[in-house]
Every structure is written in structure tokens, then in C-alpha cells.
User: What shape does this take?
Amino acid sequence: MIAAPLTITGGRLVLPGGIEDGGVRLENGLIAALGEVAPAEGDERVDARGALIAPALVDYGTFAVDKPAFHFGGIARAALMPDQSPPLDHPARVRFAAQSGKPGLWVHPLAAATVNLAGEHLAEIALMREAGARGIATGRKWIADSGVMLRLLRYAAMLDLVVVTHAEDGGLAGTAAATAGEMATRLGLPSAPAEAEALAAARDIALAEMAGARLHLRQVTTRAALDLVRAAKARGVAVTAGVTPAHIMLSDLATGGFRTFARLSPPLRAEDDRRAVLAALADGTIDIVASGHDPRGPEDKRLPFADALPGMAGAETLLPAVLGLVRDGTITMARAFDLVAGAPARLLGVDAGVLRVGAAADIALIDPDRPWVVDSRKMAASAGNTPFDGQPVQGRATALFKGGARLV
Amino acid sequence: MDLPPPPAADGRYPAGGLAFPHRDLLGIGHLARHEILYLLDEAERWVALNRQAAKRVDLLAGLTIINAFFENSTRTLLSFEIAGKRLGADVVNMHAAQSSVKKGETLIDTAMTLNAMRADAIVIRHGSSGAVALIADKVDCPVLNAGDGQHEHPTQALLDALTLRHALRERGETADDFTGLKVTICGDILHSRVARSNILALTALGAEVRVCAPPALMPAAVDRLGVIPYHDFAAALAGADVVMMLRLQSERMSGQFIPSAREYRYLYGLTGERLALAAPGALVMHPGPMNRGVEIDSDVAEMDGISLITRQVEMGVALRMACLDVLTRRARGLPGWGDPAPGTEQWV
Assistant: This one.
């Protein structure tokens, strides 16, 4: 679908170098001009009225294709986790998933690293790459067998595919539903020490370094693991780190009262770890903030805490979360959009997520200050399991363009 | 028959229903110190009654109490059943072992079913922490937590406090609360809801609580609950006034947490020699059922005037009668126990 040329004027461009007044001209699905743009004869015209003209968000690592929620959140592309039913461990499923959102949402599948995500036998990774996979993921769990993991990383390095891992040592984590600490002890929840993350991160970094593979730790949520990532980056390892707004904004206190919307994987951490996440966002150790969008209905969530399934509906709150970090002075606006658009697009290897002439015309108009209240009963997502229920937030996408075509 | 009057307020508690302004009894963690004392004082009325030949009153006549046990239980279920019957209520037991009633919506559905049967109180035991609160949220009547996972077992902690109070009074010691009393709780602290509720109740009443367990059975950051953790049983026992032993589940003695039962006994079994390390005349408690010869030796369990283990069972009935009485007062329309006081959130 090629939309008619479109010119947006009167906005504030979110460029990699900072904010500049100006506009953007979109043509043939690409950004044709930036800055002082003048609409050509016959162009559709949009007046941004002072809104931010930003790259549409690229959400790295979602569990569902939930278009209304993504569009609400200003998200035009999503990297889909292989944890589907059935899992994305077969080229045909990858091909289907890659087409499942078009035209309004581009889904970039992450192929299952192992058959049935069981962590034992390598899946047909090269064929899945051919079918449209933009990376390889271990899924919700880590791969326990270090031998399998090393072979996977070597294979991925040969194919130049990033390996996305869930850094949680399975032996320590077991069936834990919480991080070991005062909160888990008070609630009587099965818990695992936070070090389960650092152990897994250390192993995966060591193996990736050995294999010369690109490694993305999808969620790094503890001080110890962030220190490992920081050190690995400093010595030139091709490792990147992500996190979701839950671990930026919440500590394990949010699980009080057995609130299952705060049952997440990895579980919420102690306040000290949350502060370490903020520091890692500020100093660049964390590369990507993603929603981890995982809508779950009452049949999965209205259960005793440990029996409930982990996950949160996060697509709608991703943007306000990073804008909150800008408002707090933790990061700049340009960095915020690198966290949610630029860096994920680079990791996917797609020419999007950034305002640059020639890049995909995926644009969001954003009012960064507009106040609204997160309400689990009124979500665009297919389920309202948000740990931010009832919280006042600021920042909304007021319009969304994918490939130059207006969606919202 | 004539009942002794309920405890006088005397400034010790707020008047009427404000003395215990909760619809449910979900955990000790929800209770203020004076509310714990209020339930203990209320229970005193029933201790005397239970020692008579005719033990039945008609206080709760016409009320229906459902004991919904999603986890196997013999003594707690029996205790609640006897308590309800002695108060004249119609008591129905629902055994829903975890295997037959699947988790998921079924739990909520079960709660709605029980609610639709218009029970006046529901007593629930469930294997998952927080499950009882989840059900309480869905029903319109008072809910009593008879144990939820590894979270709380409030009536056990209250009956332990009542037992302790009686034993101390019989020795001529004041036992309005437990200020200065040294209590050592030893065993599987990590998996024990009895331990959690007792820690909360005993510390609220002023006791110095020590917990003793091997590292694998000790919860993280347990000191944040105001207790002193020990791995060395001898050190934990030194000078203790009360030794509370916990049951060790047999499945935890076979290598995963503890190498073997005999090794556990070697390190943590309460023998006569070990008990001598505690303060002279130290009292011994155990919530039952006991693994004799593992966490506690038979001769210790049966020491006259020292072991309170059978007394705990006796006090359990009285304490549960008090809880059922207090929590059904609103339904029975007792003056002062009706609607919430203006500006308060009670009864919500």
C-alpha cells in the first residue's frame, strides 16, 4: 500500500541530535525531506500544531500482535517473541507471523532458538531467517544446557542473527513467582534470589564472546547483571540490553496484596535494583525499552499470585514511561526515542525508527505532556493486565503514520 | 446457659464493632495489636465453656458455616467444625482436594457457588498464598483463613498466643502481652505459614522472637520481620522461655532441602538435652502433627507442665469459637456491630 505524498508541518522534529522545529515530507513510504519542508502540489497536508514529530515506536519483544494497543501506543513495528501457540519454530509459522500485521503494523518475528522452545534441539534458524525472522530468541525461558547455548550462538554468528535471551538461571529460579526478599517473605511466595539474573547474564555473555555472536539480553533488571553488561560493552562484546517500564517504575512492593498484574517474568525486584536500572538508562548501558506486551485475561490473572501467569499489557504505557524519564531528567528526548525506536530498529536491521531522509515513513505525532490515567478497564489492548492501573501519566500519540499512510 | 460477659472495653479497645472492624480474618498482618488482644480476650469466654459437660450454646443458631478445604487437613478442619457446632451453627464441610478442583477460574467459580449458597461465614484453606484473600474478595460473608499456602495461618498463631497466655498465668506470671518473652521458633520457617503468622503475632505482642533453620529453609530477609535468625540451634535456644517446633514435611527431608531425617534430628531435633539449654522451665509447643523422633523427641513432647502441645489443640477450639462469634456479629445484628462508623472504611 503506497499512500499519497504527505507533508507534516509546524511540529518539533525528534532528531538523533535533538529537537528542532520543522516538518517532514513523506513519499513512496519513505521520508523524502526533513526540516524546513514545503508541501508539493497535490500533497496531503497535516499541521502538527507544535506536537513532537517522532519516529513511530519499534517495540522489541512482544508476545502478542495486538494492533489496537500498539497503535494507541504509537507503535508501528513489533518484534514478536516466538512464544506463540504453536511456537515460531518452523519457517511457515514465521512467514505467517511476518505478514500478520500488515499493512498497519509490521511484525518482525523472532525465531525460536530451539524446537518447541524446549532448549534442546536447534530449530531451522536459517530457513526461518529466509522466511522473515529478524533474530533468534530463547523465549520466556533461558536455555539451561550451556553446550546447546554455545552451539546456538556460533550458528547465529555465522548467520549474522542476534540471539535474544531471557537471563534467568532456571535452576535458581525454579517455579519462583517473586524475587527473594522481604516482600516475598511477607507474602509467603516462592522466590528466587535476584542473582539468578546475573548468573545467566554472565554465562550468556561469556558464550557470546566466545562465539563472536551478537547477544541481546531482553530484560536486564538487577544491579549485578547491569554491571556485567556494562563491563562486557567496555571490552567490546556485542551485547545489548533491554528492559520494560515495569522494572523502571516498579519494585516488588507492587506485588503487595497479591496483585497478579504485577506478576511478571522476571519478577519485580528490590528498590535498589530499580535504581540501578535508572542509572543504566542514564549511562547508556540499557539500549532498549520495550513493552513486553503480553495481554492476559482473567483466566490467567484472576488466580492466586503464584498460579497466575506472568506478563503485562504494556504497549499503551511504553511511551508515557520513557517520556516520564525525560521529564525527570534521567534521559534526553532524543535518547528516549532511541530507546524505543532507533535502537530496536537497528537491532532488527530495518531502516526505520529514526527521522532520516530515506528511512521508512513511520511517524508518530506526540503530545508529550497530555495527561491521562491508565485504566485497566478501558484499555485498547485485548486485556487490561497493566501493573500501572490507576496511575496518572503524561504523553500520548495523537497520530500515527506507517509507510506514509495515516493509521490513527 | 449463662456465658461470661464479653471483655470490657476499659479503654483497652474501641467500643462495639470498632474493637474488631474487619469483615474477614485473613492474616495476622492485617491486625493491630489491640485487635489481637481482643480476640484472645474473647476466646477466654469459651475456654471455660469447653471444659464443661454441656458445651453447646445457640449463639449462632440458624447460621450456616462452610468449611471449604482445598488442601487436606484433619485437625484444623475438626477444630473449626467443633467450634461452629458448639456455637449452634450449621456446619458443612467441603473437601476439595487440589487434585479434583483444578486451579484457574474454578477457584473463583467455587467461591461464587459458596456465596450463592448464602453461607454466613466461610472457612478456607488453600495451598496457594493469597488464595483465601482472592476468594474473600468475591463473597459477601466473612471469610476466615485456615491457611493459605506459605502465607498465613492466623487462627494457629492466635491459639498459640492463647495457650501461652494461659500457661504463663498458671505460673503466676503476668501475660497481658509477651513483652520480654524469648520465643524460639525452629524448623521449616521458609515454607511455614504457621511460622509467619506466629512471627507477626508474637512480635506484635512484644516477644523477642528467634527463628532457627538451616539456610535452605530460612526465608530471605527474615530479619526484616523483626526476628533474629539463627542456624545454630544451641545458640537459638540459649535462655529461651518458649520453644516452638515446626513440623518438617517428609518430602523436604529426602535430599532437596535436608539430606535426611536423621541428619535433621542431629542438628535440629528437640531432645531433652537440648531443651536444657533453654531457660529453666521453658515451655514447648508444636502445631502438630508431630514427627516424633525427628523434630521433637517423644519424652519432650510429653513432659508434664512443659509441653503445651495438647493444650494448643484445646485452645484452638475456644479461639476459633471466638473468631466465628466476632465475625458473625454483624450478620446477627448485634448492637454496635452494624454499619461502618461515618468517615471510616470499616466493613468495606
Notes: The first strand of chain A starts at residue 6 and ends at 15.
